[in-house]
Design a protein that fits this description.
The complex is a heterodimer of chains A (233) and B (227). With 233 residues, chain A is of the alpha/beta class. Chain A is built from 9 helices and 5 strands, in the order ααααβαβαβαβαβα. In chain A, strand 1, helix 5 and strand 2 form a beta-alpha-beta unit. Classes of the chains: A alpha/beta (233), B alpha/beta (227). Chains A and B meet through helix 4 of A and loops of B.
Chain lengths: 233, 227
């Protein structure tokens, strides 16, 4: 097929369409991804199937290429915007059709830090993986986190920081949870460009997550472990 | 592979900024103490050297663009110290932490060389104490120095893809409020340029004359003879 030949999404069969949606997501083509989602829904696909196969499947390729240094932040942001547009259509339908729920996460950027690109990607991919996400936004003092995890009966607390000057605040939050005797009630995941595994361990987090894909996999593992412990107990 | 030539460090024009950004600066090999610096500080360091007659200080710079990939700074400093160590009595590293998360400090400790205290150049230009005192109220500020104002496109606009996708601007800068231009020199044209950068980012503009701040003090200590 030549480059300038127009592709009519509605004329593609399901497999071709999903493949094309992955390409469009990779290229950050919001309108095309939205159109693809609508076509699949019209063809009778369950919203959850559209989400996981067409959108999350496509973002996985984006995430892998970002990890491998093939794609960079601007391209990932464009892809995320395209996925967000697709998810906006699916979200109300997912609520109606009772898609499987993995667990609940409260997430936010720490006090003194206004950076939220990584956090937003994690939120989106966690939602895509079936987690309910309560996003506290930026610049969160310890009180915001504690109030939200209790109110929302969250399974997971996620904290993000971009600055070396703000990342130590994660320890303040975890230490406060320990003082209040609630640390073990939650899975605590941390992430952000200047962090590493050693830092995550040192502050008492359950895990450091290098990127959104790792955050999703780590969250799934911890939730499964929690369920196994409950079943055994 | 072609290799761009590093200029000798009699650097005296701003036309060398692109080289300081991508290549760095080779030492002139005419002093006993080597300042191993970020290329973004070359003009300021050479101005201080001239003003104070620190002829025994030589200067070598690593590419300033490492600013955008802080994980590469400590290994680059380590390699440069190894390369130059035999030629000097002492090496002083003119980097602050610069986003290395303590990594550069650890590298310098292992190598037995000193470095600039503080989190980054925005802090030491303003004075580490002053900057720290302001930090709590000023975390919605985006900073430019003289060098970064001149090199705004190469360090900010293009790496963030805003030349190709200006619609992403608010995803990056939506929570920022002010662009603080920390002026090392009085240069109306550069102030106008910094103001234009603020406009492009959709931020309020503030010019704050810092001069060389703690850099002058730190280099003065580095220049002092050791017993």
């Amino acid at each position: 097929m030549s480059d300038d030949e127009e592709i009519i999404l509605s004329e593609l069969d399901d497999d071709e369409l999903v493949q094309q949606m992955h390409d469009d997501l990779y290229d950050g083509l919001k309108d095309e991804v939205t159109e693809g989602v609508n076509i699949l829904l019209e063809r009778g696909w369950e919203p959850y199937k559209v989400l996981t196969i067409a959108l999350v499947g496509g973002m996985k390729i984006v995430g892998d290429d970002f990890r491998d240094g093939i794609l960079f932040v601007p391209e990932v942001l464009l892809a995320a915007n395209a996925m967000k547009a697709g998810m906006a259509i699916l979200k109300p339908l997912l609520a109606e059709t009772g898609a499987p729920k993995q667990g609940k996460m409260v997430i936010g950027t720490v006090k003194g830090d206004i950076h939220d690109i990584g956090k937003n990607l994690v939120s989106m991919m966690m939602e895509g993986a079936g987690f309910e996400v309560v996003d506290l936004g930026i610049n969160n003092p310890v009180e915001n986190y504690l109030e939200a995890i209790e109110r929302e009966e969250a399974d997971i607390l996620g904290m993000s920081a971009l600055l070396t000057t703000t990342m130590p605040y994660m320890k303040v939050v975890i230490d406060t949870m320990k003082e209040k005797g609630i640390r073990e009630n939650y899975i605590v995941l941390v992430g952000g460009a200047p962090l590493n595994e050693e830092f995550g361990r040192a502050i008492g987090a359950d895990a450091y997550c290098r990127d959104a894909a790792v955050a999703v996999e780590t969250a799934k593992q911890f939730i499964a472990r929690k369920h196994n412990q409950l079943a055994a107990g | 592979m072609s290799r761009r030539h590093m200029p000798a460090n009699g650097l005296n024009t701003r036309t060398a900024d692109a080289t300081l950004r991508d290549v760095g600066l080779a030492p002139a090999r005419e002093g006993r103490v080597l300042l191993l610096a970020c290329g973004a500080l070359a003009h300021e360091i050479l101005a201080l050297r001239r003003a104070n007659g620190w002829d025994h200080l030589d200067l070598a710079c690593l590419p300033a663009i490492l600013h955008n990939t802080p994980d590469r700074i400590a290994p680059a400093v380590e390699a440069a110290v190894a390369r130059h160590r035999a030629d000097y009595d002492r090496i002083f590293v003119v980097y602050a932490d610069c986003g290395t998360g303590g990594g550069l400090q650890e590298t310098c400790r292992t190598l037995g060389v000193e470095m600039v205290p503080g989190p980054h150049c925005y802090s030491f230009f303003e004075g580490n104490e002053t900057f720290a005192a302001r930090a709590e109220d000023e975390f919605t500020a985006f900073y430019l120095t003289d060098f970064l104002a001149r090199q705004f496109d190469a360090f900010v606009w293009e790496p963030l893809g805003l030349d190709r996708h200006p619609e992403l601007r608010d995803a990056y800068f939506g929570h920022y409020e002010t662009l603080v231009y920390q002026a090392q020199t009085d240069d109306p044209a550069l102030t106008a340029r910094a103001r234009e950068c603020a406009d492009r980012l959709g931020l309020a503009f503030e010019r704050r004359f810092t001069g060389y701040g703690d850099l002058a003090t730190v280099l003065s200590e580095a220049a002092a003879p050791r017993r």
